Predict the 3D structure of the following.
Amino acid sequence: MLRRTALATSTLLIGALMLTSCTGPTASPGPTGDPDPNATLTVRLSLEPSNLDIRHTSGASLEQALIDNVYQGLVTRDGDQDNAIVPALATAWEVSPDGLTYTFTLREGVTFHDGSALTADDVVTSLQTAKDDATIQNSADLAGVASIASPDATTVVVTLAQPNIDFLFALTGRAGLVFKNGDTTNFQTSANGTGPFRVESWNTGQSLTLARYDEYWGEKAGVAEVVLDYIPDQSAATNAAVSGDIDVALEIDPELQSQIEGTGDFTIESGLTTDKGTLAFNNAKAPLSDQRVREALRLAIDHSALAETLITAQPLNGPIPPLDPGYEDLTGSISYNPDRARELLAEAGAENLDLTLTIPNVYPGTLATFLVSSFADVGVTLKVDQVDFSTWLTDVYTNHDYDLSFVRHVEARDFGNWANPSYYFGYDNPEVQSLYAQALATTDEQQSSDLLAEAARIVDDEDAADWLFLSTPRTAIANDVAGFPKNSLNVRLPLAGVTVAAE
């Protein structure tokens, strides 16, 4: 394989859908040679960040490229182990019995990429800034923090105003990243983290190159360099793989998969995500404020047929995905039944209903076409309004001016949206809000999961939305590449453990 080109992927709240038919994932033969520590790993991604300021710029493309690779927090999550919380800049932590006090033991021998030693003050200042500065992405995740202090050089103590079982998970995100205090780095174009890679160069519009940080505190990265090649076009990405210009291609088009497999140089793998294809109903606006209408629309959709159409998807039918606490298989909670859908619409006085689906134009038309046909079969005329993402943010997300909407919600542990009546779903159920609050407040993980599952069943029973599918994108991995992560690649792409066999 050639490893000198540059192309990459990332997903925001939205991402491209794979909508066709093809063969399934293939088994990996695995590399046969010894790892080459001087190798360059080239990874195709689709969405490039607008800048590198991960604290102030939205978009999953930044998290995908920089978290765990360049920047780190006290803890991180292992996507291939059900998003388990694991140590990073903290070697250990203790939680008080009342769930209010978290005491972290800092790792020794950690340096930033500019050579400065990590201090407890860096940690305290980073967390305090993230809490106090509302312009920092995910600042609200630390809203419940009462105090942050360092009693000695190797300890940081965080005290919460009230228990929050998701606090550690919050620290795995942007709000928990640790920066050098007083750093003058231009974060728009560069970076200064503690991770196994440093930012070597950014060729805007083409690629981001990461170089192994040789002074890294942990096991050194398995390759000398990573090139994230940003190739939004699927045909171009396929050609790059076929020609040997890239080692890994994320979110490949299933229709083009056979071309990549035909080279004999790649294995196709599929992993889980928290990427929920969500058909939102405006619960606060007639006629979607009538549950009979919402249920009818769900009954009109053949979810199994839809998943087969989309290929890189599996039925979900509930608000919590398998990688999140509170997951319960709800795929049998509603079954395709167009006859019952027509009856419900008649009961609601909503025969010959006209509705509009507002959908960002980054999504291919296959999904909308499927919904138009499904709803027409039960007497509902669906107009499709394809808009750019900024318009969707204004009209749907901010102004709640819509009937139906579709986007892929990629965020992990985002069930709280259903407990927020101000969110664009317009769903307001005090019981769900109470259960969610209880789930956060308990210190018992199983109890929290059970409470979330109970709340999710209510949301599903009330047909607050339709969860059309769980995205299961496919990744093409060269046969000489080992250790490539599998799950949640649309939001996290930890590459330190990846190796490339010597030629």
Summary: The chain has twelve helices and 21 strands. The mean pLDDT is 92. The two ends are 9 Å apart (CA to CA).
